[in-house]
Please model this.
Amino acid sequence: NYIREFGLVSGIRIFQAVEGADHAAGGGNPIKVQLPGYPGTIHLRDTLADCSTFWQCLVQRQYDLGRFPQTRRLDQHYNELLSAGKTPLIIDCGGNIGLGTLWFARRFPKARIVTIEPDDDNLEMLRRNTAHLKERITIVQGGIWDRHGALTIVNPQSGSAAFRVEFTADEGPGAIPAYTI
Model:
């Protein structure tokens, strides 16, 4: 899969960097990779969650819309907005470490992206991974909900890719803003 996606030499190099570490040991060694077609360095924590997110977003391209019949209509609308002098907007709800944002930025190079993420550690990685996007991206700490208010992460022990949030009446320490679309 790595070779198919990134070519022989780059695929082997990226595979070794991402899959070669003992993620279960939680070594904490940062992983840095350069991907063909992606500007900037991609930063991962040496965790199963980050490496799985990398696999899903950038190797398997889970956000690739090409297999859906709506893709042509989406592309047409994107191009119509650009032709009208407007900037398309993408909202990435649950930005994690920013790999989905990177994919969207590459796929829709003229779009503005707002990325919402509740977790402090994920936000740090998201900022590092998207720093080169500068004014194209806005990063917001919080979560998406059906009403404004506050949220709390209810399963912090689950790891950075599996957090769940719940609405809370307590807007005190540890609460994060709840945003509506």
